[in-house]
């Protein structure tokens, strides 16, 4: 898989000696990556560390004893569509409406949310898809990996943004799901300044029996809506008022910044069947502190490829921070030797029997050229066996992952399963990375 190299590419792309990335490629991407990371990717890691589970739920012993929903198992992928906007004087609101779908059973009042009708979401600065993969289960804990795909509507391509890898209690994970058991125990009505409401929630042709948790505070509005049967998050919105600027216009008060809006909606749950899911870690993993890769970071002007390429040395050091029987969390420190700017970049992730740092040796042995290992119906990411070769250490297999605008090839040693090297290129930015393992574990 190409997740690890995506980290290298996306963190270092803005340092390209090309000077300044084009507005089409990076202008919207910076806005989207910051907003969507705050909405989806970072909460998964941050809340796992801070100890919060879902809205209004403290992660204590009771939550630690709650198992994840029954449909959560290794290979499960949950996909969300998300958008972020910076809009002047537009807000999501919970509005009292006699014909609204949401009802407070205590007062009998009914409400509608502007998100239900698509109100206040025009002018989005960017949108994309977030995918969270269940890598493993460990008791009531889950090990998760996430990836964000930003949609470049000008070029019709996807740009992959850095995700995260975490281990956390599986009963309730903010931004993903809440156990149906926990949902059934939530009292409806006003709870500590929040509104807990039940009602029908139509989404993509399906009407769900849902529970919505709303913070109606003006300027700090947020909502999360869950399917009461599966516990999966159906929709999440935030509406944060802009801050006051010290700038004052003539005859007016302080200038208020634009309202920040985010929205995420459930797309699908599917069970991947890629050979290697749930396989035991190779024998070398527990005794190996990390892996080191070296190679080149290359940039070619995507507008005028004939102008030539610029290349710089690059290294990547992967350190396994914790592991289980089928998985290992890792920290990644990557560095490009750019003139005047060679500070390293750190990120995290999770590796398993389908990459990025090893592939199940048993699965590799049975692969054949042209074999399609997975095709994602949302992003169209296709994972295919594209080569079987041999080096001085023995047979290897190359697996290519391709999504519109990005192509990556990873080569694995059949005997040990270890990642020998990767080549990845992003057409829209003209970036290519070629890295090889320095030493076998």
SSE layout:
Layout lengths: L2 H10 L10 H28 L10 H4 L11 E12 L6 E3 L5 E2 L6 E4 L12 E13 L2 E12 L4 E13 L2 E2 L3 E2 L1 H6 L3 E3 L2 E10 L2 E10 L4 E8 L5 E8 L3 E5 L5 E3 L2 E13 L18 E11 L8 E15 L4 E9 L8 E7 L9 H6 L5 E4 L6 E10 L2 E10 L2 E8 L5 E8 L4 E7 L4
Antiparallel strand pairs: 1-5, 1-17, 2-4, 3-4, 5-6, 6-7, 8-9, 10-11, 11-12, 12-13, 13-14, 14-17, 15-16, 18-19, 18-27, 19-20, 20-21, 22-23, 23-24, 24-25, 25-26, 26-27
Short description:
This protein has helices at residues 3-12, 23-50, 61-64, 180-185, 361-366; strands at 76-87, 94-96, 102-103, 110-113, 126-138, 141-152, 157-169, 172-173, 177-178, 189-191, 194-203, 206-215, 220-227, 233-240, 244-248, 254-256, 259-271, 290-300, 309-323, 328-336, 345-351, 372-375, 382-391, 394-403, 406-413, 419-426, 431-437. With 441 residues, it is mostly beta strands.
What does this structure look like?
This protein is mostly beta strands. It has 5 helices and 27 strands. Strands 7-6-5-1-17-14-13-12-11-10 form a 10-stranded antiparallel sheet. Strands 21-20-19-18-27-26-25-24-23-22 form a 10-stranded antiparallel sheet, covered by helices on one side. Strands 2-4-3 form a 3-stranded antiparallel sheet, with no helix packed on it. Strand 5 (126-138) and strand 6 form a beta hairpin. The radius of gyration is 23 Å and the shape is globular. 44% of the residues are buried. The model is unreliable at 1-61 and 120-124 (pLDDT under 50).
